[in-house]
Amino acid sequence: MFFDPLYLLVMLPTLALSLWAQFKVKSTINKYSEIGTRSGMTGAEVARRILQQRGITDVRVEEVDGFLSDHYDSGNKVLRLSPSIYGGRTIAAAGVAAHEVGHAIQHAERYAPLMFRQAVAPVASFGSNVSIFLILGGSLLASASMTLLGVVAFSVAVFFTLLTLPVEFDASRRAKEVLANMGMVSGNEGAGVAACLNAAAMTYVAAAVAAVAQLLYFLFRLGIFGGREE
Ligand SMILES: [Zn+2]
């Protein structure tokens, strides 16, 4: 089943979409990492100021190595920003920092999709790991029930990937709003922030499309859409 031309036909466009999204986010972040904001605040200052304004006092802001390695660690309540974001006084730095603070705010407010996503995470990770063995094993042993179990496990992982979308879109929405409201970006700087965050969102959309396409392929091969009988 893994040498199936149909599989390539399904996965190649999604791979292309994912590569395009990654290229787009890198080029957009690079472009707006060259453009300073009028407020002149670093990403770290932006993050700390928003946290303070929201009354969130238990989240630390730290620098982390890498490019686009920015993330909010909810377990340790640490907001980690990559060097160009942490110390950058640019539109990209303000946008990415505010987005990550958006996740810290979601956490503080116990935003339902985030909480649900965290609850599903261990199951999804397990499902993702075992699914490939079950599907491959089921295929090799011609065991439909083993394959089906694999596809069920895989669908939990797909569901988790889909849950990422509302969480990410909401964090970006909060970021744009708070940056404008607090006057940390003004005028056309908002459009630059939006460009950075929309490009980042596309990588999550691409991942979701790939996951759903793969699941549909598995379901098709299981005969759920009238695919051929094994
Ligand atoms: Zn995010």
Protein model, in words:
The chain is mainly α and 230 residues long. The protein has one domain. The chain contains seven helices and three strands; from the N terminus they run H-H-E-E-E-H-H-H-H-H. The chain has a three-stranded mixed sheet with strand order 1-3-2. Helix 4 (91-108) crosses helix 6. It is elongated. The structure holds zinc ion. Zinc ion is lined by residues 99, 103, 168, 171.
List all distinct small molecules, including ions and cofactors, that are bound in this structure: zinc ion
Which range does the strand content fall in? under 5%
What is the overall number of helices? 7
Quaternary structure type: single chain
| Structural class by sheet pairing and helices | mainly alpha
So what's the overall shape?
elongated
Q: In terms of per-residue confidence, which ranges show pLDDT below 50 for 5 or more consecutive residues?
A: none
Q: Total strand count, please?
A: 3
Number of domains: 1
Distance between the termini: 10 Å
The biggest beta sheet is recorded as: 3 strands, mixed
| Spatial order of the strands forming the largest sheet | 1-3-2
Mind sketching the topology for me?
Layout lengths: L4 H28 L10 H11 L6 E4 L7 E3 L4 E4 L1 H4 L4 H18 L3 H29 L3 H38 L7 H33 L9
Parallel strand pairs: 1-3
Antiparallel strand pairs: 2-3
Helix pairs in contact: 1-7, 2-4, 4-6, 4-7, 5-6, 6-7
Task: Summarize it.
By secondary structure, the chain is mainly α.
Which structural traits does this protein have?
7 helices, binds zinc ion, 230 residues, three-stranded mixed beta sheet, 5% strand
